[in-house]
Design a protein that fits this description.
alpha/beta, 28% strand, single chain, 14 strands, 245 residues, seven-stranded mixed sheet, globular, 7 helices
Length: 245
């Protein structure tokens, strides 16, 4: 079984949608991708078992992708988590996450469960899932991820326009989730993809399906209309589950 549970599809300051985040399940192993400031509630509602998540991968460390970490940690502590948690991030990301715990709960606070760390961009085997990473073009370092489980491939961009490395990472994926913050390219909004850019990615990567998320709230209606006639591209389903079988 290879499922993608969509916790959030919203951009950073979306007034109505949670921050972009998914839970990927491969043969029982659960990976949370990103944990922004408005994701903690969605995660705890969707998966109330504090031991449900095996690992968290942070694509990058803007608040809408990382600042839900401390609330989730203290909730899992309060709810009795004991299973070790693997955190997949960069070295700077580890510094930020440890600092968030210190600032939130004091320098001596530690959860009762073990925190293990894996440094991106080194490849990772997590249960039956094989993860590899590539940088995108964002305003801070961001890594896209390719997840292979048995004979299915899911890719997730995080934020940023595609790079040659990320297009190679997405190649022939069964499903690609790609951010599409802009309807049209805007030089005043660097480090984010537009609809035309995502169409180019789909063409060059040969993905079977591309689902778009992290869309600016003001562009959502226009984006939805533009995708009505698309066969390869669609909006990621807020709150839904996508199964690769």
């Amino acid at each position: 079984m290879f499922d993608i549970q969509v916790l959030g599809t919203g951009a950073a300051n979306d007034p109505s949608l949670p921050n972009s985040s998914v839970v990927v399940t491969g043969n029982g192993t659960k990976l949370l991708i990103d944990c922004g400031y408005s994701v903690a509630r969605e995660l705890l509602l969707a998966l109330p078992d504090p031991d449900a998540i095996d690992a968290i991968f942070f694509t990058h460390h803007h608040p809408d992708h990382a600042w839900g970490f401390a609330p989730v940690m203290t909730a899992w502590q309060d709810y009795g988590r004991r299973k070790p948690l693997l955190i997949v991030t960069t070295r700077w990301g580890r510094f930020q996450l440890e600092k968030l715990l210190e600032l939130g709960f004091g320098p001596d606070w530690r959860p009762d469960f073990q925190l293990d760390w894996h440094m991106v961009p080194d490849a990772l085997v997590l249960g039956d899932m094989h993860l590899s990473f590539a940088p995108t073009d964002h305003t801070v370092p961001n890594h896209a991820v390719r997840i292979c489980c048995e004979d299915r491939v899911f890719a997730y961009s995080g934020d940023g326009r595609a790079t040659p490395q990320s297009v190679d990472l997405y190649r022939d994926a069964d499903l690609l989730f790609h951010e599409c913050h802009l309807f049209n390219d805007d030089p005043n909004v660097p480090g984010h993809a537009s609809l035309s850019h995502c169409r180019d990615i789909a063409a060059h990567s040969n993905c079977r399906k591309v689902m778009l998320y992290h869309i600016d709230a003001d562009a959502r209606a226009e984006m939805k209309r533009a995708l009505e006639q698309e066969h390869i591209m669609a909006l990621a389903p807020q709150g839904g589950v996508v199964r690769l079988s």
